[in-house]
Amino acid sequence: MKAAIYARRASITQQDRSTDVQIRLCQEYVERHGGMIVATYSDDGFSGLHLETRPGLQRLLEDAKTGLFDTVITEGLDCLSRDPAGIATIFKSLTHNNITSYTLEEGAISERDVGSTGTMNPLLLRRLAIKVRRGQEGQAKAGWDSTDLRGSHEAERELGCK
What is the mean pLDDT of each run of 10 residues along the chain (162 residues)? Predict the structure, then answer.
């Protein structure tokens, strides 16, 4: 296995799922399975909703065309995209180039995974935006400096939440 690792973190508040931790977990997986890591890509501080704005993902997709790797490893499918069309686009591009997608959470990715995750992600995002906003409001009431609430407002706006 010639593996490429991809990690993404949407905001600095996600410290327990930082890109460094995601990369380390993926490296450990590749090593346990006798593979070789040939490339590592990451997007730190980028939303999972937009493919075109993530330079690390764009480099991964370009390198996929060259045969540099035969497997892409991520922590979860939502690291690649939270948008149903985005997941389908990435999966199609990788499979077209004979690249296997594998996540630590879901295992080997198939069309079924792409379809079911693509259907569930918008629902999960809507719930997440509400919970994040509620948590930020609670922290603000407790005296936390909440001057930067852009992340939840952006998610609410994109998802049509009020």
Answer: 90 63 93 96 71 85 96 88 82 94 87 68 62 66 59 47 44
Indicate the length of the chain as a whole number.
162
Q: Which two tokens stand for residue 27?
A: 């490296």
Burial classification of residue 159, based on how many CB atoms lie within 10 Å of its CB (0-12 exposed, 13-18 middle, 19 or more buried)? middle
Bridge partners, residue 107, by sequence: 103
Q: How far is CA 137 from CA 9, 134, 147, 161, in A?
A: 22, 5, 11, 16
